[in-house]
TrEMBL record:
The protein's name: ABC transporter ATP-binding protein
InterPro entries for this protein: AAA+_ATPase, ABC_transporter-like_ATP-bd, ABC_transporter-like_CS, ABC_Transporter_VariousFunc, P-loop_NTPase
Residue ranges of every copy of the ABC transporter domain listed in the record: 5-230
Domain of life from the UniProt record: Bacteria
Gene3D superfamilies found in the cross-reference section: P-loop containing nucleotide triphosphate hydrolases
One Pfam match: ABC_tran
Cited SUPFAM superfamilies: P-loop containing nucleoside triphosphate hydrolases (SSF52540)
Species annotation: Metabacillus rhizolycopersici
Keywords, in A-Z order: ATP-binding, Nucleotide-binding, Transport
């Protein structure tokens, strides 16, 4: 299980934001999901990984090398799928392909056209005439047609209809059947990652809260529910985050901090539960 990407103590200071001491691995043969609320630093981290933003300290290696050592070689091995359109709107799918393909040594037209056929993307249509879903399919076809080892996606399913989102996720699962490839998938739509991700990294305010196998994360946390009376009776200092209602509460705990109480209900959390209650707890703590 090879680490295609290694980030060690990565720091990036901006005028209103800091990436703070990020340590993260992306392993071949797996899908790694990056979650976090808007503004958490997900896109900034991807920009640093792509060498579109230079880090202040630490090190990022891709395929065993830094961008300083071999940026052209590294970029040949990366396929990038971005939420916003980065192609020429007034040119057709075919015309855009001709431009992009010139930059890749291992580009294969046959692969590209097979994806266009599979995705039912008309090659003669202009990009601006394509729907959001069709643009995403085209972007994915471009990303996969030069045999990348690493596919990086920034909010790729945002705004897509449920049917195409499911189809898109199935395509990604097919891609990582080739164990030499890896997918790094940034999103705030946690349900997508619950379906397909092997590893989850969670960012908040420029910091990495955790990075682990998905099943380990679910085993690590538990949702605790009870009445307001029960909350007042118990020691809630170890709660990571609490949401109170008029009749009761819902909290997030590490399993090692479970408390025994007759009137508590314990449930397995979703990724959304973990993200929401962790952010809620951190923001509550920072307000004091």
């Amino acid at each position: 299980m090879e680490n295609l990407v290694k980030m060690r103590n990565v720091m990036k200071n901006r005028s209103n934001f800091t990436l703070n001491n990020i340590n993260l691995d992306i392993k071949s043969g797996f899908i790694t999901g990056l979650i976090g609320p808007n503004g958490a630093g997900k896109t900034s981290l991807i920009r640093c990984m792509m060498n579109l933003m230079h880090i202040d300290s630490g090190e990022i290696t891709l395929f065993g090398k830094t961008h300083f050592e071999a940026t052209n070689e590294i970029k040949q091995k990366i396929g990038f799928v971005y939420d916003e359109n980065c192609f020429y709107e007034d040119l057709s799918v075919e015309q855009n392909k001709k431009i992009v393909s010139m930059f890749y040594n291992q580009w294969e037209d046959s692969v590209f056209y097979s994806y266009l056929e599979r995705f039912q993307v008309p090659k003669d249509k202009k990009i601006k005439q394509l729907s959001k879903g069709m643009k995403m399919k085209f972007s994915l076809a471009i990303a996969l047609s030069h045999h990348p080892q690493l596919i990086i996606m920034d909010e790729p399913t945002s705004g897509l209809d449920p049917i195409f989102r499911r189809e898109f996720l199935d395509i990604l699962l097919d891609v990582v059947q080739d164990e030499r490839k890896a997918i790094f998938f940034s999103t705030h739509m946690t349900k997508d990652l619950e379906q397909i991700a092997d590893y989850i990294a969670f960012m908040h305010n420029g910091e990495l809260v955790f990075s682990d196998e998905k099943e380990n994360i679910f085993d690590h946390y538990v949702i605790v529910k009870g009445s307001k009376k029960t909350l007042n009776e118990m020691n809630s200092s170890k709660m990571i985050g609490i949401k109170e209602t008029s009749v009761g509460f819902e909290g997030l705990l590490q399993r090692k901090d479970l408390v025994s109480h007759d009137n508590l209900i314990f449930e397995k959390p979703s990724l959304e539960d973990i993200m929401y209650l962790t952010v809620r707890g951190r923001e509550h703590a920072s307000s004091y």
